[in-house]
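Before surveying the methods themselves, let us examine one representative protein, written as a sequence plus integers encoding its fold.
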Amino acid sequence: MDIRSFWETIRMKLLDIDLWIDIFWTFVQILFIWILAKLLIKLTGKIIEKFMIRKPRSSFKVDERRTKTLGILIQNIVKYAINFLAILMILEKVGFNLGPILAGAGILGLAIGFGAQSLVKDVITGFFIIFEDQFAVGDYIATGNFSGTVEEIGLRITKIRNWTGELHIIPNGTISEVTNYSTHNSVAVVDVGIAYEEEIDHVISVLEKLLANTYKEMNEMIKPPEILGVQDLGPSEVVIRVIAETKPMNHFAVARKLRAKIKNGFDQAGIEIPYPRLVTFQKTKG
């Protein structure tokens, strides 16, 4: 075939109305598949969120932490599955034979399974994290050098946001030890220093009244604070320890509020809180 015949064939193809109609309908079908996949992802996400994350009140006891975590995980799995099916349908409309593609994907997946051992480890670890309820979305945890609030748990990675805003993306396979601060009540510990000249019984009496009133004002506390007694005899102060059981992860805020309340209460009662002082003597020649 010479050049003239080749370009003539091309010209005839471009002028073929049936060809352009087929291309147009193929494009319409691909666009429809893509839009339908996006709508299905959004619809299934809403359904999962309604029945898993925002589960209505019922006679059965529901762990909100776990249902929220499972809801996000199921949403991700459904999204991947719908996108995969949409890609296969689009390839079929374009004209690809899916039989050899699927067979090749199976062989490729088997090869990747042998080579990507870290990926398999991530997936297995992620499954056991969710199955054993080690932590859930919304929990405050510490693992390795990272700590923060869990934003997402997937089969491969876990996302933790630090209180300063950094987002840590951690492969599940690297999570070997986890400290979960959100599953049980916390304890706020406040050490109060008083001067040696103060009478301890009087100070404890003032503290008891002050803490009783503070408990009524703070909903974060589970029960009234306790005064454990003298914790330490320092160089210039007597340290009295106060503890308060709080709701999970509220101990930092409660401790700060307690310190402010105790400071104001001691000022009103005339109780001295010692602080470093420098006394100088000037020797004069007589």
Confidence is low (pLDDT under 50) at residues 56-62. Residues 186-269 form a domain with the Alpha-Beta Plaits fold (CATH 3.30.70.100).
